[in-house]
Write a structure and sequence with these properties.
- The chain is mostly helical.
- It has one domain.
- About 70% of the residues lie in helices and about 0% in strands.
- The chain is built from six helices and no strands.
- It has helices at about 1-20, 25-30, 40-65, 75-85, 90-95, 105-110.
- The longest helix has 27 residues, at about 40-65.
- The radius of gyration is 14 Å and the shape is globular.
Amino acid sequence: MERHRQAVKAPVTKYDKFFVEHPELRPYFYHAKDLDPQADDLTRWRVEAAAEMLLDCFTNIYRQFEHMGFEGFESYGRFMQVMHRDQPCFRRLADEHAEWLDAAFVKHLRGGVDVTK
């Protein structure tokens, strides 16, 4: 069980560090900023790569909690759902590539299942 808890903390720490190192990307993931259709390629690629990193992080967290019976998952799960609901860059990537992901995880992201009950 402790191994799974540590496996959850590692990507969260990496995620936090990423946004400290790249504050210019925070508005796309915390302030509902969408990509301007005229954004240069480098900006688009950075935002898409950050969204993919975050999706990978969330997938890892979901998997670890799945092994723990979702004990303690509530706040992580709500954050994932709010991110999907409110942040267009993240939502677009997650929805466009839903086939990459476990169906139960996608359903959770979209607010369709409460795995903690």
